[in-house]
Amino acid sequence: MAKTIGLTGGIGSGKTTIAKYFMKKGIPVYIADVEAKKVMQSSTVVNAIKNAFGNSIFEGNDLRRDKLAEIVFNDPEKLKVLNGIVHPAVKEDFKEWLLQHDAYSFIVYESAILFESGTYKDFDTIIAVTAPLELRIERVIERDKTTREHVLKRINSQWTDAQRISKSDYIIENIDLEIAKNEIDNILKILKIKQNES
Fold this sequence. Notes:
By secondary structure, this protein is α/β, with parallel strands linked by helices. It is 56% helix and 15% strand. The protein has helices at residues 15-24, 32-39, 43-53, 65-72, 76-100, 133-144, 148-156, 161-167, 177-197; strands at 3-9, 29-31, 58-59, 62-63, 106-110, 125-130, 170-173. The strands form 2 sheets. Strands 2-5-1-6-7 form a 5-stranded parallel sheet, with helices on both faces. A two-stranded antiparallel sheet has the order 3-4. A hairpin with a 2-residue loop joins strand 3 and strand 4 (62-63).
């Protein structure tokens, strides 16, 4: 039975970069955001989104994610509605994925909203990736070619680093990638020792 690691961090913390390093080490990683995009194309989810948000956010059958994001990031209640549609579908998808990767010692589930969605309860170990606020803002502006105001809105819709840290088993401060990689190596050593002892 694979030990499950929940990997989380706010937007711009660089958690996807950290997830890729786990992959390089031969550990399967489920990137919830990527998989959610696939799940959101299933007819069941599409119909549920149409019922909740109307047809104006669709072009034909294609969901305009930018229009949907504009709605939900400005309205916490609507974000709850969307999460109520997408999270259960992603959870089912992850269960199937987990069965396919059960022979591994560890698997990683990467999600920005591990705590907000309540999913964190399903994992053996939680790792939070943090970075200073200004660095996070800088990274997202560069990556998404967006405005500071837009990034702050996204950051404010998520948990704070302090909230994540208080509920995590391990913290990786991702300012310098080489140092962060060393921290991952150390965490994996500890987890392997724990696994051998259990």
